[in-house]
Structures are given as structure tokens and as C-alpha cells.
Amino acid sequence: MPDEPSATAPSRPSHPSRVLVLNSGSSSVKYQLLDMGDRSRLASGLVERIGEQTSLVRHTPLAPGGGPGDGVGGKTRERTGPVADHDAALKAMAEELALDGLGLDSPALVAIGHRVVHGGMHFTEPTVVDEAVLAEIERLIPVAPLHNPANLTGIRTAMALRPDLPQVAVFDTAFHTTMPESAARYAIDVATADEHRVRRYGFHGTSHAYVSRETARLLGKAPEDVNVIVLHLGNGASASAVRGGKCVDTSMGLTPLEGLVMGTRSGDMDPAVIFHLMRVGEMSADEIDTLLNKKSGLVGLCGDNDMREIRRRVDAGDEQAKLAFDIYIHRLKKYIGAYYAVLGRVDAVAFTAGVGENAAPVREAAVAGLTELGLAVDAERNGARGDGSRLISPAGARVAVAVVPTDEEMEIATQTYALAGKRN
After folding, report:
1. N or C terminus: fewer CB in 10 A for the chain?
2. In what order do the strands lie in the sheet with 40-48?
3. Per residue in 119-165, pLDDT tens?
4. Which residues are catalytic?
5. Is 230 left (phi over 0), alpha (psi -120 to 50) or beta?
6. Which residues contact 377 (CB under 8 A, 6 or more apart)?
7. For residue 333, with 0-12 CB atoms within 10 Å meaning exposed, 13-18 middle and 19 or more buried, which class applies?
């Protein structure tokens, strides 16, 4: 007879269903562990200030319902101290998970999903990572110099920790690869554009994919039957036009700088401003890059990039804050109108991300005056707090206006699990 299994050895589940989602930044790693069998969250955490003496490890076991509660452990644990590099960060994460019986050695873990910001035109769907994939992500570093190197580091570190598991890259740009050439191409010399891979790629794709699909569910329709304008409004902000579940236009371009006014980014601007600042202001390319990405947008206009503080200042009569808010709304409204024209028929406008989900004045102002397009918000619905997806337009409105909390981690886990399941 075969030996009986040890009483302390974990039993191998018949259908492994856990997915670890990693979002590796230059000095931080965010993670969530999800069970795709019932789409529940088991744990989430953050390691930040990697490479510093004051690194922080924050870990929260989650209740089966998906929020902090009395699941395994229940309460957030924090510790500070040096975390030298991403290898040390992921090992710290593994230690925290192991404390809750959720270790990376668990046979229930089926795959690790990675957020990768830029996949160019090469990656149009989630992809199991191999050396060729790593090489292509590395080749794209020139168009994503802040993000792709950190994403690569996280993938390589995770591969070293669990070389037996599928590592799946889910690309921010992939959802936008369905854009027609008329939307994706810039009107510059074709040969130059092709040589240097200059085109509109778009970002926040996992969020736009999730929110457009969730909006269709909220309306009781299939995604292929719904046209949605998605407004992802956080410190970074982007809009997309989604026809029948596929992106046909988006506001961010070659980089995340183009489009809406953001927390610290300028968004749309005459390109000649750059030449003007070089010639007249005698600014270097690096100085202008810093100006447009880190010292512009709301913070450049009024010194604050927190919409709550800006609204407080507006309500107190601060003219500079009011101008910043008005510029933000003006740009947002232009994109709503433009994407209405692109889609022809709009079934819903969905607000998501930190500002979109929480700033009722932004939502109200963004659709104010657009009643001829069928857009309006109900004041009571718009002002009510809520955690889930909800309609804020008046009953019977021709176009639904919705608040749809984004869930990029769930989207990454869903795509990762679907791909890993095909291999098992």
C-alpha cells in the first residue's frame, strides 16, 4: 500500500484556482492573491520605498467577500526596515502570505499575472512569458522608460521564485490595439512613424476593458451590444470610446502624457510649445519632459493635484483653483463630445478610478449642458455614496451615466487564469 500523506502536508486541490497579481513599479510592488474559483480576494499588499532604509511592507488578509475583515488574520500588518531590491520585496511578500497559510509554494497557485504598461502592437492579448517575450518588452523600453524596466524586474524576480508556474503578462496597451488605423495613426511622415514606432497606443487598458464590460452588465446587456464612453479619472486620466466591447479610440497616445488634464500631466498641447520652450526658454529636453509630466496638469495650474483639496478651495472662493477645475472639466467635456461623435450611438458614459468614483462635482460638471445628447445626472443619485456599480442618471434617461469602480487586479487575474487554464 502507498504511504499515507502526512497530516501536516497540504493536500493538492483537484482544480488549482489561485492567481497572484503583481504590479511592479520602480520602487514599489503591489500585489493581490485571488481565488478565481469564486472570484474572491485572499490577500493584498504593498512593498514601497524599495532600496531605502525606510521601506514599508503592508499586508492585509481579506475576508471571502473581498474586503478587509475576519478572514485569515483579518487585520493589516505593517513593518518598516530596509528592503534592498525587488527580489527582497517579493520574498517579503511571500513571507507575509505564508504567515496566513497562503504561501507561494501552495499547489493551489496556478499562475502569476503581471501588469505590463507597454506592449506596443506586438502584444494584443495576455501572453505567457518566455525569453522572447522578455526581449520584446525590453525592446519597448524607449517608449515606456519609467514603467517597462520595473515591470521586467518584477517578472524576472517572480520567475526565479516560481520557475514552474506560468508567468502571464497583461498589457495596459492591449485593449486599445483594436483601434482602426484612422484613430491610431498620427498625421506625420509614415516612414518616420513606422521606423520609430510612433502611433497612439493608449493606456489604462485593463481598466477600460473591465469597466466597459461591467457597464454592459449593469445595463443588463452583452458587451457586444453596448457603446460606452469610459472615463478613467485618477491622478492619471484617460478616456476611451468602446463600440461593442472593442476600443475604437482613446485619449492617451504614444505615452500617457496625451489627452485629458491630469494630476501632474498637461494632456493635449500644441507640440510647438516644446520648441518654443527650447528656443525662447532655453530649456533642455529633460527639463521640458519633467515640466509636462510632473509639474503640469492640476498641480501646475493651482499647486494641488488632489481633487478633494481643489474642490475645497473652489468652495472657499479660490479663483486659481476654480480656473484649474474649469480647465479640467472643459477638456473632459470635449472628449465626451468627440467620442460621442466617433461612436454615433452612445448607450452609457461610465466614470471610474479615484476621481471618477468619488468626486460627484466632477461628474455633474462633466455632463452639464449636454442634455441635447441625452446626458444628465440625477442630483440625489450622483451625491449618494456607494461602493458598487450604480447608475446616476435620471430614470428613463436616453443615455445611462454610471459610476463603475474599476478593478484592474481582477481583470488581470481573470485574463491570467483564462490563459493558464488552457495550459493545465
Report:
1. N
2. 77-80, 56-61, 40-48, 28-35, 18-24, 109-116, 167-171, 127-128
3. 988 899 999 999 999 999 999 888 777 788 889 988 998 999 899 99
4. 172
5. beta
6. 363, 364, 367, 392, 393, 394, 401
7. middle
The span from the CA of 158 to the CA of 169, in Å, is 12
The number of CA neighbours under 13 Å toward the Cβ of 9 is 8
Query: CB 179: neighbour CB atoms within 10 A?
Result: 21
Rounded distance between C-alpha atoms, residue 356 and residue 263, angstroms: 13
Q: Are 252 and 226 in contact (CB under 8 A)?
A: no
Residue keyed to cell 515640466? 291
Distances (CA, A) of 162 to 104, 105, 107: 8, 8, 12
Cell 504614444 found at: 254
Would you state the cell numbers that stand for residue 347, as one nine-digit string?
Answer: 448607450
User: pTM for the whole thing?
Assistant: 0.88
- Mean pLDDT for 53-70 is 70
> Which three cell numbers mark 368?
452639464
Spatial separation of the C-alpha atoms in residues 230 and 250, rounded to whole Å = 9
Q: What are phi and psi of 82, to 5 degrees?
A: -65, 130
**Grid coordinates of 358:** 468619488
CA dist list (Å): 278 to 26, 107, 266, 271: 29, 57, 17, 12
